[in-house]
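User: Hey, my collaborator sent me this sequence without any context and asked if I could get a structure. I don't really work with proteins. Can you help?
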Amino acid sequence: MDEMKIRGFTTPEDFSGTDSEKIQQAVNTAIEKDIRKVVISGKYTLKETVILPPYIHLVLTGAEITSNGDFPAFMNENITKDKFYHCFSFEEDMFYLEGGKIKGDISFYNAYRVVIDNMEIEGSLDFEFSNEVRLTNLKIEGKNGVNIKRGSNNFICDNVKITAENNGFTIDTADTKRDYVVGKSADIHDLIIKNSNIKATCGFSLEAGEKTNLFNIVIEDNSVAGTSLELSKREGELAPSHYRDITAVGFKPSDKNGIKLFSDTKHCLIG
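Assistant: No problem. I've predicted the 3D structure and written it out in structure-token form, which is a compact way to encode the shape of the chain:
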């Protein structure tokens, strides 16, 4: 009988090597044995990024994982692959991270169905060409909080506490150093961000581009210490259709002067 399969999860304690190698082996073995669940307890220091394959459930039971360098603590496999995989057909599905504390960034690219819940993060969350994402009950501290980049859509963010030097939520369609995902639009749309508490220079920074749009976005009942919202600061004046069907209301404290619009909008309620 396979002890790990009977137990229903793997753990880094099942393996030897550096902390990074232990966690990576636990993840890889969980996939190989079709267990797909990793439970981590205790403190671990990473010397390299842990790569997450699709269909993985990572549970930190009081664990603390620290990135010991200028690299993400966790990222999905697609970030590491060549251009052949950077298309809609190779979108990676189902990631569930919960509990504990991570000191380092977490990045997802060309990913589908991502859940991050009940976790403390000293770093940032980055999403590019990712969709069907749920962020709940998080505490984030770092230079930036949540970065929703080009091609990302269908997010629900609820009860996210952010302390950031720059932006709490950055919603930006700008090109990055990563490849364009063939078959996906660079527009950002269908976001719900509510009941969150943000201490940052800017709570929400929204940026479309000359060829990209932001639409169907609801930002509601969030507390912001700092500028509540800036729209189109980098791109400046764009056609109103680039920012459409956006609702951003219920900021606490209510400060209309804390909302800065540098472009016209269409079918929006802001303030």
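In plain terms: DSSP finds two helices and 22 strands in the chain. You can pass these tokens on to your collaborator as they are.
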